[in-house]
Amino acid sequence: MRIAVVGAGPAGLYLSLLVCQGGDNAVTVFERNPEGATYGWGVVFSEGTLTELEGADQRLSRRFDQALIRWSTIRIHRAGSETIVAGQPFAAISRRTLLGLLAKAATDAGVEIVYSTEFASGSAESYDLVVAADGVNSAWRQTFASHFGPEEWIHPTRYIWLGLGRALPGFTFAFQPTGHGLFWVHAYPYEAGMSTFIVETTEESWRRAGLDQADEKASIAFCHETFAVFLDGAELRSNRSTWLQFVTLRNRRWIREGTTPLVLLGDAAHTAHFSIGSGTKLAMEDALALAEALNLHPGNLAVALSNYEAVRRPAVERFQEAALASADYFAHVADLKQLPDATFAFNLVTRSGRVNHLDVQRQDPRLVQAANGAVIGAKETPLPPALAPLSLGGESFASRLVGGALGMTISPPLAVRVDGRRSSDDPLSGAYSDAADVVVLSHAGPRAGSRPAVDGLDRPPLHQEQLPLAASPIAYTRSHIPSREASEGELAEIAECFGNAAKQWNDRARMLLLDGASGNLLGSFISPLTNRRSDRYGGSLEGRLRFPLQVVGAARSVWEGPLGFRFSATDFHAGGITEEDASAVATALATAGVDVVEVGGGGAVAEYDPPFRAGYLVPLAARIRNRTGVPVLVGGGITTLDQANTIIGAGRADLVRMSN
Amino acid sequence: MRVGIGLPSAIPARASNLVVKWAERAEAAGFSSLGVLDRVNYDAYEPLVSLAAAAAITEQIRLVTMVVIGPLHNAVLLARQAASLDALSGGRLTLGLGLGARLDDYEHAEIDHRGRGGRLTEQLARMRDHWEDGQVGPRPVTPGGPDLLVGGSSGPSLLRLARLADGYVHGGGPARSFAAAASKAKIAWEEVGRPGKPQLWAQAYFGLGDPAAGRSYLLDYYAFTGTFAERIAEENLETPERIASFIRSYEEAGCEELVLLPTTADINEVDRLAAVALR
User: How confident is the model at residue A446 (pLDDT cuts 50, 70, 90)?
Assistant: First the structure.
């Protein structure tokens, strides 16, 4: 088979050499830059990737080995303190060395590499396959953009890619507060006397520091000054370095059929934020998978290509998801300044969602011991975070779990009066006799009076006897008639009902949770999607919170124990509540006497776009907790003690609601 | 996990009495359900008509659509059809509904494909209303109407499932992808506050007697997907060993009913599959 590979980066070269070794193929690599014109510093590999590379070509792998720098710790520098995390084996290599080794091995295997040459589109016809390995700005992908369907997400933070003239002892994160805001470094050694040194910050801090106006020299001077203590006299080097915004790239398709098929490889197909590893790792894994598919199906190119995509797409998507979580962590890392060092370190190593409490326990038991202790403000404790005692609103709880086998028992939403029931099957607070540690008080508002939930949600009966009450006259679904706008007098009555219900539970429940989420009455006031009132109960956030706070006041004045409030901190819908408003809601509730807020999401309107997966509300809950200091309860597909331990141990929430 | 078998209603060149004979043989063999596909622009029998024919000659076996392209139908008429089939079969219908993968099905049916997601959601609610209120006859035998299955893994699809359907039906692929989708379905169900749990169904293709014919059928049926057709053909379960391990992997992933769809119109496929799948 005749194969043209566009781009002599790691993906293109590695694929070429594997394909030439594996079968009767003639491969030509076209590189528009001259030989040796590489940019960049080092490239990180995990032990897993190295093992895969070894399986494919042991001789090449031995040459890599000699050039690799390995480490097993992550060092976290933070305002003068250093936390060392053990059990983190990774390796790095100089990009220049990597390309040199790959180019030599490829040439030895019979690959023809043509430098300083663009691959002309007309010449595709003389090949059986064209591989676009020409990077994130792939000209080939852009030529057929409507076919490949690229989607780009531009990250908000700014970063600059520098070299440090000193080999650090392992992977290093440094967090440095400045007058402009927090700046942080991702750094790792990649050859003797050299490290990659990436400086990152939020857009606001970057502008405040004047870096939007700074040239290369001024930028390096700024980084040098900011991290002077940490650099310890070593020099920062630039290689035409500028401040960038990372772009996560996805493509709907990776393959274009035709007389000469075209396939995307590496960065041309996908990117993943640098904070959990390098695109080079993904690119070389792509090359391995494509070479294997081509070698396994020599006579059937269509099957080979579809197998390549089928094998790689799920792996790449999982990695991209983890990389997005990691990037999001860094974008909000400035909020974590209150966390103790051990909690901060545990939070950092679990940021991508791929590593949990049990994993870190294996990697670095001492760190986990310190993080467990930090949950209760002790040096250490035999109890894992989720089972550590909690004092809240004057009440002591033996665990931090709500629901599940180990947690506090929780009631279903109990209506504070008859017109507040979702359906006639729903329990009324006054008539509910089961015991529960946490009692949820609710008024279903615009969703009231539906048929029983077993047969589907929000289905109004044939003849709706009573108009549901809401902040504004909006129909909850297309089957509903519009709700009736609650009058000020009715609101006062309902607040009183909440108060009366709360009073009934003194001595019978340990915590009350007022339900202001899921598009019910309280929630309909909070969300700008459903509150269109022009009186003092609508408009600004202060107005929209007036009635919920009135209810809090009514409950607080009669209920002596811990008081919680559940609200939708996102509507998963355009025009819904903003994250700033959600934080302000938490603060206002706490000021009014709420001891813990449950961060929920969605439901203000019937149609929205929720990312249902385990822990989908946790990042938002964590930001609200760490920004406001208000204790937070979070749930959402969390089923294991390990997940709960990770969330609480990392300071992302104070309590976790367990799912069945 | 229960195992069902597909009817050969979407395989061209079947004899006109094959579907009925197949249904009879499948029930005798002990399969738990008979599944049908929906495709307008193909030589395929209409799914509910096929199941009606099967219902007439069987007594126990469940009848399931995987799936009927909902938005191609008027909700009231589809509710009537489904209620009729449910009544005629003694309450044996499970109605899977979906959006369909091909826009040309909408073109051939002269139905606008835009807004089809919202229409499917609306359709689920309206069909349930018809079945419960009985304003349009007939009454289904199953109280409240036949169980409704839907697929999809986007936020709005999961919401549709959790709010208005009875279960999730997976479109195909390895057990790991089913497990991931089923987990999302369960999370959606709990998060919206729906009592109970979603039913979990899945499907896959098999072809034991003449794998080459099975593959070429799949390449033809899925030609509109481009190279993905190769993938589907590749995943066709062609040996007893692969079927057995596939069944095991789905069972471990928490699937409640797996329907294996035929790829050739050879009635002996029923017994070949039964020998592996119903041991």
Answer: very high
Q: Is B216 on the interface with A (CB under 8 A)?
A: no
| Strand segments (E) across A276-383 | none
Average pLDDT value over all residues in chain A:
95
DSSP B211-227: HHHHHHHHHHHTGGGTT
Tell me which residue in B159, B195, B230 faces A608 most closely, judged by beta carbons.
B159
Q: A178 in helix, strand or coil? A: strand
Chain A nearest-CA distance from B117, in A, is: 11
pLDDT of residue A518 exceeding 90: no
- CA B105 from centroid of its chain's CA atoms: 17
Question: Taking 90 as the threshold, does the pLDDT of residue A229 lie above it?
Answer: no
What is the rounded distance in angstroms from the CA atom of residue B139 to the CA atom of residue B147?
A: 14
What's the one-letter identity of residue A395?
A: E
Query: Residues B42-86: pLDDT tens digits?
Result: 999 999 999 999 999 999 999 999 999 999 999 999 999 999 999
DSSP per residue, A354-396: S--HHHHHHH-HHHHHHHHHHHTTSS--SS-GGGS-EEETTEE
Interface test with B, best of A264, A305, A612, A613 (most B CBs within 10 A): A612
The C-alpha angle with vertex A157 and arms to A151 and A162, in degrees rounded to 5, equals: 105
Distance CA B134, CA A456 (A): 17
CB B241 within 8 A of CB B279: no
| Under 8 Å between Cβ of A152 and A246 | no
**Beta strand pairing call for A74-78 and A171-178:** parallel
Closest among B138, B146, B142, B156 to B76, alpha carbons compared: B138
Residues of B within 8 A of A256 (CB-CB) are none
Measured between alpha carbons, how far is A166 from B252 in angstroms, rounded to an integer? 51
> Strands, DSSP E only, in A371-519?
390-392, 395-397, 401-402, 410-415, 438-442, 469-470, 484-485, 511-516
Give the least confident one: A162-171, A437-446, A592-601, B107-116. Answer: B107-116
The CATH class, in words, for B2-277 is alpha beta
Asked if A458 and B228 come within 8 Å (Cβ–Cβ), the reply is no
Question: Percent of chain A, pLDDT > 70?
Answer: 100
The HSE-up count of residue A266 (CA atoms within 13 Å, CB side) is: 28
Q: What is the pLDDT of residue A114?
A: 96
Contacts of B162 in chain A (CB under 8 A): 457
- Enclosing H/E stretch for B125: helix B116-133
| Phi and psi torsions of B175, nearest 5° | -60, -30
d(CA A261, CA B226): 12
Cα–Cα distance measured from residue A656 to residue A406, given in angstroms and rounded to the nearest whole number? 11
Q: Which residue type sits at A85?
A: V
Q: Is B188 on the interface with A (CB under 8 A)?
A: yes
Task: Indicate the pTM of the whole model.
Answer: 0.94
* Helical packing angle, B240-252 and B175-191, nearest 10°: 20
Q: Are residues A198 and A161 in contact, defined by beta-carbon separation less than 8 angstroms?
A: yes
Locus of tokens 């090449």: A60
- The CA distance from B85 to B51, in Å, is 8
Burial class (CB in 10 A: 0-12, 13-18, 19+), A518: buried
Partners of B198 on chain A (C-beta within 8 Å) are: none
Name chain B contacts of A613, Cβ cutoff 8 Å. Answer: 183-184, 187
Rounded to whole angstroms, how far apart are CA atoms A118 and B18?
Answer: 59
Record the tokens describing residue A542, joined without a space.
């202060």
